[in-house]
Write a structure and sequence with these properties.
Elements: E1 5-16, E2 19-30, E3 34-38, H1 45-52, E4 60-65, E5 68-69, H2 74-80, E6 81-84, H3 96-106, H4 111-124, H5 140-152, E7 158-162, H6 170-185, E8 190-194, H7 198-204, E9 207-212, E10 215-220, H8 222-226, E11 234-239, H9 243-251, E12 256-262, E13 265-270, H10 274-286, E14 291-297, H11 301-309
Parallel strand pairs: 3-8, 3-9, 6-7, 7-8
Antiparallel strand pairs: 1-2, 1-4, 4-5, 9-10, 11-13, 11-14, 12-13
Helix pairs in contact: 3-4, 4-5, 5-6
């Protein structure tokens, strides 16, 4: 079913008793878009995905996925979506061929179609040479690629990927990222991608929605999101001792616009350019602040994320 928007929500809300996990979410994801979900733990991302994939019903509001109502037509929604979960959800004791055969049978596919698509998608995820090896011995990256093949077997229009690179080594993360881009660009599959990796979201996604405390606070392209912040110089510091004390003292300096502490790391927004960096260097030297690392950087998606989800912006 061809639709302009792969996903549309209107006032989508989910409550658990007195707790609101998702509050009045209105969102449109275009067909063929690679859409990223960002947000702190507990922001509402997973609950949103669970509603859109029909695992739980909304408390109020509604949504369509692939043109089908998630409340009235859950079986039709499930027929047009694929899901790649964060944790491996297939059977360790089965081979890739056996796992995909089981998945295909659940979707009511015939044996010839299952065999044809099993080979096609195992080749796409570079696992055909491991087709007869028990999945339990696979690396994390191989298991995630097998999960992608399982999610694609019935050729869904929309693929939900829930933090698929969590726990993977750098090479596996890059490989899975490239596979996701290929599926989206070459195969035209709409992808909804949740991640905590800001760099990954910046490089991969067409648009990004940032959630915080059950609310979608901003939706835009990575470039547009980064342009939201004033064009200030940002200095990334790692302080060896007393980072919170250093942060409090820095906030009082006239050359500092803001300080965002993250453990031993401080992101310092400067009011000026190179002169303010020199002033910061002099201040650190005078105060005998011990640094593990320091570098000046451009505005990143992480800066936007901190700005939109920190308590200072409520």
């Amino acid at each position: 079913m061809a639709v302009e928007y792969a996903i549309e929500t209107e006032g989508l809300t989910r409550k658990f008793g007195g707790f609101t996990a998702v509050d009045n979410l209105t969102l449109k994801v275009k067909e063929g878009e690679l859409f990223g979900f960002l947000g702190p733990n507990g922001a509402g991302k997973t609950t949103t995905i669970r509603m859109l994939t029909t695992l739980i019903a909304p408390t109020s509001g509604g949504a369509t996925v692939g043109g089908h109502d998630i409340y009235k037509e859950p079986s039709k929604v499930r027929s047009v979506i694929g899901v790649v979960p964060q944790q491996f959800a297939l059977f360790d004791e089965l081979t890739p061929v056996e796992n995909l055969k089981y998945i295909g049978q659940l979707y009511g596919m015939g044996a010839p179609e299952i065999a044809r698509k099993t080979r096609e998608f195992l080749e796409i995820v570079d696992l055909w040479d491991k087709k007869d090896v028990q999945s339990g011995g696979f690396s994390g990256g191989m298991k995630q690629r097998l999960s992608v093949a399982a999610g694609l077997l019935h050729e869904p229009e929309i693929l939900f990927m829930d933090e698929p690179t969590t726990g993977l080594d750098p090479h596996s993360r890059i490989a899975l990222r490239e596979l996701t881009r290929q599926l989206n660009r070459k195969n035209g599959i709409t992808v909804v991608y949740t991640t905590h990796d800001m760099e990954e979201a910046d490089k991969l996604c067409d648009r990004i929605g940032i959630m915080n405390k059950a609310v979608m606070v901003e939706v835009d392209t990575p470039g547009a999101l980064k342009s939201m912040l004033p064009q200030r110089t940002r200095v990334d510091l790692r302080v060896s001792r007393g980072p919170r004390n250093v942060a409090e003292l820095l906030k009082r300096q006239d050359f500092v616009a803001a300080v965002h502490p993250e453990g031993p790391r401080l992101v310092v927004e400067m009011k000026g350019g190179q002169n303010s960096v020199c002033a910061l260097n002099n201040w650190l030297y005078t105060r005998k602040v011990e640094l593990a690392d320091m570098h000046v950087r451009e505005t990143s998606l992480e800066d936007v994320f901190i700005h939109l989800t920190s308590g200072e912006n409520e």
